[in-house]
Amino acid sequence: MTVLTRDREKPCILIIDDESQIRHFLRISLKTDGYELLEAENGETGLGLCARYSPDLVILDLGLPDMDGSEVLAGLREWSSVPVIVLSVRDREQEKVQALDLGANDYVTKPFGVDELLARVRTQLRSYNKGDHPSASGMSAIFDVGALHIDLPMRQILVDGEPVKLTPKEFAVLKVLLLASGKIVTQSQLLKDIWGPTHTSDTHYLRILIGRLRQKLGDDPTEQCYIQTEPGVGYRFLGIS
């Protein structure tokens, strides 16, 4: 695993591949083109690096030792829209379609030409930097606000160092608010995203859930340190720049 302090002037690319020869080849090629590199040899490490460092692009192998690359892709798409180029020996059309349906932006089959891969990298980065992706801000998926620690990929919530258990809907609402941090998310949008389009008027469900969520996070409803209510409109998450 490579650990670094992000240089925001350089695009950062995360390679998730268990073949050391492939990582070495990509490292030389990408660094020569001026990119900053992160490397992981398994899916769990790759997801952790992506959450911590918010790379600008991910190159992902599907045949990983701890989980299939499709699982990594599905997990990543729960909280990030970073461009993903799948780099795999699997050349069946079904495999390619599945990866693209899970949210891959491109698919390159091994063996591959480095010039073609670099061109595809540049194409994805141009699209990402134009703001075509909602997570293009480079914001981490790990949050520390006061006594609260939230790790979205690991689904881990700590308050004063103690684990807090959220229901799936509580976690889903918290995730939406975090990823839109500082911005108002309307009640109807939350209800549509979490409960479905037929529940956009059921604001009482949301009020009850927000109340439980505040209690679990230790957020005094009169102070509203984490979740701020905009009466009649929606909610926003506070404290993250």
The run of helices and strands is EHEHEHEHEHEEEEHEHHEE
What's the helical proportion of residues? 25-40%
The CATH architecture classification of the largest domain is 3-Layer(aba) Sandwich
Oligomer: single chain
Rg over CA atoms: 20 Å
CATH class of the largest domain, named Alpha Beta
Structural class: alpha/beta
Can you list the strand order of the major beta sheet? 2-1-3-4-5
What's the shape?
A: elongated
Strand percent estimate: 15-25%
What's the total number of strands? 12
> In the residues, how many domains can be counted?
2
Rounded mean pLDDT is 86
- Measured between the Cα atoms of the first and last residue, the distance is 28 Å
In the predicted model, the low-confidence regions spanning at least 5 consecutive residues are 131-138
Can you give keywords for this protein?
241 residues; alpha/beta; Rossmann fold; Arc Repressor Mutant, subunit A; 5-stranded parallel beta sheet; 4-stranded antiparallel beta sheet; 8 helices; 12 strands; 38% helix; 20% strand; elongated
